[in-house]
Specification:
- With 547 residues, this protein is mainly alpha-helical.
- The protein has one domain.
- Helices cover 81% and strands 0% of the residues.
- It has 21 helices and no strands.
Length: 547
């Protein structure tokens, strides 16, 4: 489809069920994207808030409905199937990057051709996934027969089969989702995710009340993924006007995409080794109950990761555009540090609150049997904080096509983490798996990676660190110190926990306002509160939000 056709006239706009077609091609991408970034970031935070609130309410209900062994089995099979997710090969990230690049260049034909090629690749990957699943299925008894009962093995087979089908189906849909993100249509993307989340929770509550177990959860997820995937196809074709194009790419471009995706693929393997190896090792040596405790700790860690990842995710296309247009390292570092401070403000509050009240929360929320998940989560969350405030740096590397070193480094560290976890689980169980991950985070993600940012990427990481910690670290430590006094109030109960968290929130907010936030962040907070109608918005902020 030509660029003119993609911009779309008014003739057929009204026929689209998604409303008027995009006119991105007729506008400078920066003008169109800034509104999407602001709204997308706001919806990301709303999604995180709703997701975490739903999980806070739904997870204990699910734990009690499935039982500790049932939940552990569900988590174990999920971790095993997730390893096949690396078959994405980083193609989704490549689509986002190159769609953003083609939009800046106004090359609609290449955008359509990229979608056509990637759809073919994803379809082949879906078939390969099903074949691998069929090959692994007979060996479930070999892997887990020593720790799972006959009934648990039977349930594990059913879960594994349906999860594999769900994963295979998700690959072709992923191409359309990536195009949406490459077009920076964050409002649509986040809204669909939010609706899916609410619908999933409501349906699962009904089914679990009726006595259904883990298999029902996977059936619901499969149906919802099918529906969202079809919706994404419709949005890309009708609202964005992106369709397959017969253009053939030059060999040099194909080689560039392959090498770019290759190292994203390595990152996918690394993520699986970091966050899933503990489930498998514990499943093979300790049983489903131990997996359940570890899974809860890792679930809390994933909640912790959501906040900074949601912030950085909306900046990937913007960073790509900055790199393509030749933005200075000073401008890129300024964006990096400004985003990192916002991330750090949230992470410091969450980590401080969990350190003070996490054990009490787990006792009340999941039950006494899961109280040990607090120390497992803390061991990982503390060192994880540093790479989480640097997630925009990952996108900078990808936009510059300089992520090869990171991928190879993380692969080496992930292998070391896996070996350490296998060794330490023998002595400390779930805590040993967490210790292996923590050591890998400190060595690879904190020390080596920051040296690479400084020497090879060309970012002044000493200046970055000073910019990020200024004010926030002393203010957060002071708040935690005062909050420590709240832990001496005896007794565990929801009213007491809520009261403690509310008081700590007030202490943290006060400390940050007077000692942590800079002028830009205070204006940002005032603007956000004004948008919610909680504070009179300054005229300058109102004008900015309208453009």
């Amino acid at each position: 489809m030509s660029a003119m056709a993609r911009e779309g006239g008014d003739d057929d706009a009204s026929s689209s069920p998604f409303g008027r077609r995009s006119r991105v091609g007729a506008l400078h991408p920066r003008v169109v994207a800034m509104s999407q970034i602001r709204k997308g970031a706001a919806l990301s935070y709303l999604s995180i808030l709703v997701s975490n609130l739903l999980n806070l309410l739904f997870t204990p209900f699910m734990l009690r409905s499935l039982g500790q062994s049932g939940y552990g089995l569900y988590a174990l099979m999920g971790a095993l199937v997730a390893y096949m997710g690396v078959l994405d090969f980083g193609i989704g990230n490549a689509i986002i990057r190159y769609v953003a690049k083609f939009r800046v260049e106004g090359d609609a034909a290449s955008e359509g051709a990229l979608l056509r090629v990637c759809l073919r690749i994803y379809s082949a990957i879906a078939v390969i996934t099903l074949l691998i699943g069929a090959a692994v299925l007979p060996f479930l008894r070999t892997f887990f027969g020593a720790t799972l009962s006959a009934a648990e093995l039977s349930d594990a087979r059913a879960l594994f089969i349906l999860m594999t089908v769900n994963l295979a189906m998700s690959f072709p849909f992923g191409a359309f989702n990536a195009v949406i993100l490459g077009h920076e249509r964050f409002v649509f993307h986040r809204t669909v995710a939010l609706v899916r989340m609410l619908l999933r929770t409501g349906v699962l509550v009904v089914l679990l009340l009726l006595g259904y177990k883990a298999l029902a959860i996977v059936v619901v997820d499969t149906c919802l993924n099918l529906g969202v995937g079809l919706l994404s196809i419709g949005y890309v074709r009708l609202a964005l006007g992106v369709r397959s194009h017969p253009k053939r790419f030059e060999r040099g471009f194909v080689r560039e995409v392959v090498f770019y995706s290759l190292y994203i693929f390595v990152n996918l393997i690394v993520d699986q080794l970091f966050w899933r190896i503990g489930h498998l090792v514990l499943g093979a040596t300790e049983g489903a109950a131990a997996v359940a405790v570890f899974a809860i700790a890792m679930q809390l860690t994933q909640y912790y990761k959501q906040f900074p990842m949601a912030v950085s995710g909306v900046f990937f296309p913007r960073i790509t555009a900055m790199v393509v247009s030749g933005a200075s390292e000073h401008d890129i570092l300024a964006l990096f540090a400004r985003t990192a401070r916002v991330q750090f403000l949230g992470l410091a509050f969450i980590l401080g609150g969990f350190a003070l009240f996490g054990r009490e929360f787990l006792h009340l929320w999941a039950g006494p049997a899961y109280a040990s998940a607090w120390q497992v989560a803390m061991v990982v969350m503390v060192p994880l904080t540093v790479p989480l405030v640097q997630t925009v740096g990952i996108h900078i590397q990808q936009a510059k096509n300089m992520h090869r070193f990171r991928s190879l480094l993380y692969l080496a560290i992930a292998v070391a983490n896996a070996l350490l976890s296998v060794l330490l689980v023998r002595y400390w169980g779930a805590l040993g798996a967490a210790l292996g991950t923590a050591v890998a985070l400190v060595v690879g993600h904190i020390f080596v990676m920051n040296i690479y940012y400084h020497l090879r990427i060309g970012l002044d990481m000493k200046r970055f660190a000073r910019m990020v910690v200024k004010g926030i670290v002393p203010a957060s430590l002071a708040a935690i110190g005062v909050g420590l006094l709240l832990t001496f109030v005896p007794g565990y109960s929801w009213p007491k926990l809520i009261a403690r968290v509310a008081v700590f929130t007030g202490i943290y907010g006060t400390a940050m306002w007077f000692f942590g936030l800079n002028a830009y962040e205070k204006d940002l907070l005032k603007s956000a509160l004004g948008s919610l109608g909680l504070l009179q918005q300054p005229a300058a902020a109102r004008e900015s939000s309208e453009h």
